[in-house]
Predict the structure.
Amino acid sequence: MENGFDFDYNMINTDIPINNLTSEQAAAFGGFLGLFAGGMLVFMFIVFVVVYVLMALSLYKIAIKTNTNVKHAWFAWVPILNGILMLNIAGFSGWYLLVFLVSIVPFIGALACAVFIVYVWMKISKACDKPDYLGLLMLVPLANLILPLYLAFSKSGKK
């Protein structure tokens, strides 16, 4: 009994098959792992691009729908500027984007940013003539992808 644990180390099988591979088999296995990792990266990139386009399109439509900064609705497609557009739709100055610098503080900063994002989306929901509690959905995985689409493409709203 070592370290207070009752474990029989003699039961461990040290004859792992990967140790018995020939160099050709090891090269084929490495090639497979490389292709698998590359395929996963391509898949994740495609998912990222699709989500980014959907979110940018949603923010663009919300800006036009709420008559907020219509001449700058293209901000939805540029990474930092889309945050400024989102804040303008919610009725805040673009300088509130600096609030996200608080996220540098480990736990409390991230929590404060999450609360602020929910508050901003509550204001955006209200600007789209929807109940403001819908902003709470930004905390729910997958619902935070559906909410901007719902707000952008729902029938009621300011024209």
